[in-house]
Amino acid sequence: MPKNWQVKTKIPEADKEAISQILSGGLEARPGSDRSEAKNCAGVLAQLLYNRGLREQRQIEDFLRPRYEKLHDPFLFKDMGKAVDRIWAALERGEKIVIYGDYDADAVTANAVLQQAFRYLGVAVDSYIPDRFSEGYGVNIEALQNIINNGPGVIITVDCGTNSTDAADFCRQRGTDLIITDHHEVIGELPKAYALINPKNAGDAYPDSNITGVGVAFKLASALLCDQRAKSRAPKYVQGYEKWLLDLVAIGTVADCHSLLGENRLLVSYGLQVLPKTRWAGLRALAAVAGLDFGQKPPDAYALGFVIAPRLNAAGRLEHANIALHLLLEQDAATAQQKATALEAINRRRRDVTQQVLSEAREQALRYQDR
Q1: CB of 292 closer than 8 Å to CB of 299
Q2: Which of 95, 100, 198, 283 has the most CB atoms around it within 10 Å of its CB?
Q3: Whole-prediction pTM value?
């Protein structure tokens, strides 16, 4: 079938000159090259930056040199303080906490981020992921009923819940506080949850609306871990521990196919630096069975989006996403290797099914074309 290439508009000369001037301060000719080569490089960079809507010096500097301290304060979410206080109250009272997450890679990594944050605080929490085939997407009432029967004080959603107004009402009526962390568009009325943490909530003032579900979960984890109460709760408190979660955040962010601008770029940039030193045995095992050797080749966005993420997604697509979550949470290296090998087998099946479907679709398209 013929391809229809859509080429971006060529940068106007005035914009090219302006962006090249901004770049010129940081562009030096490499040893053995001349300044004309550096100038040509600036022209290509100018076009790429222009394509991404980056025209001002501050935007360009943030894009080319992401800095961790540029991350927005998680308490800019209007309900973040309320959510954090409720969670700490639950911890102090010994109330049960359940994380309710969806089944794709964004949601699974978001679930793992919060699980690891609670582990660091010395707290065991439960997770619930609906079955893709029997329960479908989002928060369902039957699952909530089963969860609430076990008596949790707080349920935290990851990557879902914004449009589950019936679920929020159900929790409220049964005296369970629902904290929604999500990034999906709001459709209709807001849920009457205990707290709603979503950058796309029009009533919120959070500066970056494009962060993913795992990005929002990371914001909640960061808010919990920077709280003064964490210092007395965590067995070995270290300021900035949340940075060790960034490898999971980077995977989920790239997997969700969002633009790598703004905070997403920053989170992925630092996550790629953390990944070769990851503290998670499951992630090390997953990288190994996927053939990734970070000692030989540092990870990049391709490794996240086309090697690691498809394996995490495969579990929820063919069996159950708990397989991927349990791998990411596994602490024993030998057990992690077994779980990673099992997940790799599921991913091979996923590739075979995809190839079969693609082949059948191609045959049908060709038959239709020949009519």
Answers
A1: yes
A2: 100
A3: 0.91
Asked if the model's pLDDT at residue 13 lies above 80, the reply is yes
Residues 317/132, Cβ–Cβ less than 8 Å: yes
Which of 75, 113, 85 minimizes the C-alpha distance to 243?
113
Alpha-carbon distances, residue 148 vs 94, 111, 137, 192, 194 (angstroms) = 16, 19, 19, 17, 15
CA atoms of 266 and 253, how far apart (whole Å): 11
List of residues 6+ apart from 192 with CB closer than 8 A: 165, 168, 169, 172
Outline where DSSP puts E strands in 141-215. Answer: 152-158, 177-181, 195-197
Q: Which of 154, 176, 151, 144 is nearest to 90 (CA)?
A: 154
* For residue 38, pLDDT beyond 70: no
Nearest in space to 248 (alpha carbons), one of 196, 223, 284:
284
Q: Helix (H) and strand (E) counts for the chain?
A: 16, 5
